[in-house]
């Protein structure tokens, strides 16, 4: 399954739901969408990865890029990732200590209003 | 003699095909089901790395993948990109360079702030020297591609117990293997 992207707004948060495969082929489209969101004024962005079937280092690079863009703009990024398969990738790369990871979108939106942009 | 050989032009779209083929061959060879996801990710990383190197250097040469199932299920991914040496995958330093935001805001367009001396291949060359270079700017001075390359190596090192990276010809061969049931 290829990449799918859909955006919705939950309170003050922009939730980007990602599905399918994020790899060297599809990651540029994820990057474009994230850049559009930040340029469009989104400051509290939640990327929901729960429907992602495959994520590689290219996807991780794009997510790190989004984190940098948002922090530079005074915003915050939260990731929703409840699957062990994907969490393992964040742990191996030590990126679980860089990103704010949540099991559900509800948990992410509840938390990211409180204390955004707290350097790890 | 490899059981299956695959060559593909360095287009990102083909990396998914290589993953599918590798998992299909692994499954047929009898690799345990719980290892297939690791194999999918590891072969994907090795092929992404090769494709990215070829594209960065403007090479149209084919990326070659050879799979065999003699003693173990073995996959070799060969690129033809001269990258100036054998890489040393390492996970230990990833977090050091990714936790602190920049003190001097370089902004999102910091691709020009790459550590000097690496040419088009930041984070792929000799990683021994990279540690010093990253300290200057951290990941906030690294391009997404450089972060991805570094994470790719961390994933390969973290996922594959039997990983060998060697200079072969003018490129690099990444060899990985997984146990087959009969080899215990």
Order of helices and strands of chain A: EEHEHEHEH
Helix-strand pattern of chain B: EHHEEHHEE
Instruction: Look at the helices and sheets of chain A and give the structural class.
Output: alpha/beta
- What proportion strand of chain A? 25-35%
Poorly predicted parts of chain A = 114-120
What's the total count of β strands of chain A? 5
Helical content band of chain A: 25-40%
Biggest protein-protein contact in the assembly: A-B, 28 and 38 residues
Strand content of chain B: 15-25%
Quaternary structure annotation = heterodimer
User: pLDDT under 50 segments of chain B (min length 5)?
Assistant: 90-137
What class, by secondary structure content of chain B?
alpha+beta
- Using only CA atoms, what is the Rg of chain A? 13 Å
Arithmetic mean pLDDT of chain A: 92
How do the strands and helices of this protein lay out in sequence?
The complex is a heterodimer of chains A (120) and B (184).
Chain A: E1 4-10, E2 13-22, H1 27-39, E3 44-55, H2 57-72, E4 76-80, H3 84-92, E5 100-102, H4 105-112
Parallel strand pairs in A: 2-3, 3-4, 4-5
Antiparallel strand pairs in A: 1-2
Chain B: E1 4-8, H1 12-29, H2 36-56, E2 63-68, E3 72-78, H3 127-137, H4 144-159, E4 162-168, E5 171-179
Antiparallel strand pairs in B: 1-2, 2-3, 3-5, 4-5
Features:
heterodimer, A: 120 residues, alpha/beta, 4 helices, globular, disordered C terminus, B: 4 helices
Short description:
The complex is a heterodimer of chains A (120) and B (184). Chain A is of the alpha/beta class and 120 residues long. Chain A has helices spanning 27-39, 57-72, 84-92, 105-112; strands at residues 4-10, 13-22, 44-55, 76-80, 100-102.
